Amino acid sequence: MGHRLTQISTRTGDDGTTGLGDGTRVSKDHLRVAAMGDVDELNSNLGVLLAEPLPEDVRHLLVRIQHELFNLGGELSIPGYELLKADAVVGLDQALADHNAHLPRLQEFILPAGTRSAAIAHVCRTIARRAERSLVGLAAREPVRDLARQYLNRLSDLLFVLARVLNRANLDGLGGDDVYWRSERLLQSQA
């Protein structure tokens, strides 16, 4: 892997470029840098979510995901380098199955609302989708492992499920259930 930062203010980016982990310099608006930034933003928002009251199993899962996202960011920073492992996707699939097993079927679309932790999980979900789109754009121009895109796709699904879990956990007393979109179909079925 490339060399690690020993200082934060290097001033080498003042010209609008940044260094990748392999020493290559690219424009700060390069698709690879955008994908790295989206993954970093997702990881940072997971840090905000981790500052909330959470069930311990969800907390441990999110910490593991933060490490995996850091691996993904490292992989993106060094073209051709592989750091994210296939078992990371398997772990997300297992977490999806485990958490989905305890949730009721959806009646309608739900709003990104409820408890604060659930709302933050929804924000993380949307950032994961953006990061996935960034990877798709990058992969159209440069080699990117399918595993990276698959990981972000599964993670966004998991974050949706975790938002539902967190609403039911209701650790801040402001939730308790999904917040359903008031569609005409749902309103008619309740009449």
UniProtKB/TrEMBL annotation:
It catalyses: 2 cob(II)alamin + AH2 + 2 ATP = 2 adenosylcob(III)alamin + 2 triphosphate + A + 2 H(+). Pfam families: Cob_adeno_trans. The keyword Transferase applies. The keyword ATP-binding applies. Keywords: ATP-binding, Cobalamin biosynthesis, Nucleotide-binding, Transferase. Belongs to the Cob(I)alamin adenosyltransferase family. This is Cobalamin adenosyltransferase.
